[in-house]
Specification:
Blueprint: H1 4-12, E1 14-24, H2 35-53, H3 56-71, E2 81-87, E3 90-96, E4 103-109, H4 113-121, E5 124-129, E6 136-141, E7 144-147, H5 172-194, E8 201-205, H6 207-216, E9 223-228, H7 236-267, E10 271-272, H8 275-283, E11 287-293, E12 300-302, E13 308-310, H9 323-333, E14 337-341, E15 352-356
Parallel strand pairs: 5-8, 8-9, 11-14
Antiparallel strand pairs: 1-2, 1-4, 2-3, 5-6, 6-7, 10-15, 11-15, 12-13
Helix pairs in contact: 2-3, 5-6, 8-9
Length: 358
């Protein structure tokens, strides 16, 4: 699954041409039988469009990368969407746990807007399952869970009361302290995954273990909810129905908070609703929070002064297939926040609005 780290890497790359192919895929048969054909058709569309702009010699490295990347697709592992990013010296694919619209984008940078939207729409979160036998970490994106399985997790408690016998002098207080120390080590192991994120955490386990973890965790403020029970052997499919209601509530609260921030900014006259002005202010680093409806797309070109000019149609390397994608990237790059909203929820602002730092 794609991570925020992957997203930042893609956004930092500027290539000409930068080819982005996006399409919805299917997890199960018989729907997934058509996925290879859909990919083939999308590749043909991309190749035809590129051929109108560049010579065969200029395209050769890119088309070679594209062919190798397509041949490497394992449709048995397909999820709900597929993203291919290709340039002369770059090729990467992502199986996405959320659907994306079918699109071919040829631009000066990779089109990440639909991935940003997917990561926001399908709320990302962590599930921490506590147990002295196997404390587990799962990454959640929407209704898809993927277990972290490496040198860090699952993590098992060792020593007295776990892998060796308890000393004769041990009592319940001794074991409580052992559990607190173990869950501190679980918390430290999680640090590598939380470094670049403030994602909500759902904690599972028996009530006593959850209580110990909350006592010692440096991420206590990120705990969005808890589920109780023994989850040593729980599968991803069994966990989703338990964590999904908590995730939906988190998402609802985030959108409500975004709209409240917008109301405050409007009363302070710290908002921008004109697309051309939003473009300029975002690139100046003045964007604090950008709210965009999910299907709001606008092609545009950058003029000689660096401003945005909206155009009627896509086509040509000078034309950005989606200027909104570039605005999203600019806001994130400057430390701002982006919240993708439901269609129609920003009708009063024509689909896009940005609150300003000053």
């Amino acid at each position: 699954m794609i991570t925020r780290h992957d997203l930042k890497e893609l956004q930092a790359l500027t290539k000409v041409p930068a080819l982005s192919l996006l399409l919805p895929t299917h997890r199960t048969s018989p729907e997934n039988k058509q996925d290879p054909i859909r990919v083939k058709n999308l590749v043909k569309e991309a190749t035809d469009r590129l051929s109108e702009e560049f010579s065969t010699r200029e395209l050769e490295p890119l088309l070679t990368n594209l062919e190798e990347l397509v041949n490497d697709i394992d449709y048995a592992y397909a999820l709900d969407g597929l993203a291919l990013f290709v340039a002369h010296d770059f090729a990467q694919k992502f199986y996405l746990p959320f659907t994306v619209p079918k699109r071919v984008i040829i631009d000066q940078s990779f089109a990440t807007r639909d991935l940003v939207y997917g990561l926001h729409r399908a709320q990302r979160y962590w599930v921490m399952l506590l147990s002295q036998n196997a404390s587990r970490l799962l990454a959640g994106t929407g209704e898809t869970l993927e277990e972290v399985n490496n040198k860090d997790f699952p993590l098992q408690m060792e020593g007295p009361g776990a892998t060796t016998f308890l000393p004769d002098s041990a009592d319940s207080a001794y074991m409580d302290d052992r559990h607190r120390r173990f869950f501190q080590s679980v918390d430290r192991a999680f640090t590598a995954y939380a470094e670049d994120d403030t994602l909500p955490i759902i904690v599972g386990g028996v009530i006593r273990q959850i209580s110990f973890f909350q006592e010692v965790s440096q991420y206590k403020s990120l705990i969005a909810g808890t589920i109780t029970g023994n989850f040593d052997s729980a599968t991803e499919a069994e966990l989703v129905p338990q964590v999904w209601p908590i995730v939906q509530e988190v998402r609802s609260q985030q959108r409500q908070a975004a709209l409240k921030s917008l109301d405050t900014a409007m009363s302070e006259k710290k908002v921008s609703t004109a697309l051309e002005e939003i473009w300029q202010l975002a690139n100046e680093g003045r964007g604090k929070l950008l709210l965009v409806e999910s299907d709001y797309h606008v092609p545009g070109v950058v003029d000689d002064k660096g401003g945005l000019q909206i155009v009627e149609a896509k086509g040509g390397t000078e034309v950005m297939d989606d200027a909104v994608d570039e605005i999203i990237e600019a806001v994130l790059a400057m430390g701002g926040e982006v919240m993708l909203m439901e269609n129609g929820s920003l009708a009063d602002h024509h689909g896009i609005v940005m609150t300003l730092r000053y």
